Amino acid sequence: MTRQGRPVRALSRTELVDQLVTRLVACRMRRRISQGTLAVLLGISQQALSQWEGRRTRPSRRMQRVWALTLGEEPLPERPPVRETCGTQPGYEHHRRTGEDQCDPCADAQVEYMRAYRAARAGRPGPAVAA
Ligand SMILES: [Zn+2]
User: Fold this and answer.
1) From the CA of 100, how far away is ligand 1's center (Å)?
2) pLDDT of residue 76
3) How many CA atoms are closer than 13 Å to the CA of 52, on its beta-carbon side?
4) Which residues lie near ion ligand 1 (Cβ < 5 Å)?
5) What are the structural domains, with CATH classification, of the chain?
6) Which of 121, 92, 120 has the alpha carbon at shortest distance from 106?
7) How far is the CA of 91 from the centre of ligand 1 (A)?
8) Mean pLDDT, 10 residues at a time, over the chain (131 residues)?
9) Distance from the CA of 71 to the center of ligand 1, in angstroms?
10) Ligand 1 centre from 68 Cα, in Å?
């Protein structure tokens, strides 16, 4: 798999997962672990693992991580999804509720929100212009 001759761009999540699957299948074979054994370690059926490896189904983010870590491979970096609400305090809450890391715009929004909240509680107006 080479990227020669193609413009460099960020890989989509699908492409990243595809690369991860390629890496994990190669790792399992290199280490001579059977699908059945690995499936037991992952707590899933061999059929499910076979479908992941054959790209007929795609494991959840959490299981992608468990799969990689079980094989001693580096999982994909955790990157929070970006939503329409990103950059707002509800956007921040959404990340938090779903157990994700917040994205930078949401982290900033939360800082602003807390600043305004503390100012309101202190009974004085918040700064007119954000620092
Ligand atoms: Zn966000």
Assistant:
1) 9
2) 84
3) 27
4) 86, 91, 103, 106
5) 13-70 (1.10.260.40), 82-131 (no CATH)
6) 92
7) 5
8) 52 81 98 98 97 94 94 84 90 83 88 93 66 50
9) 31
10) 26
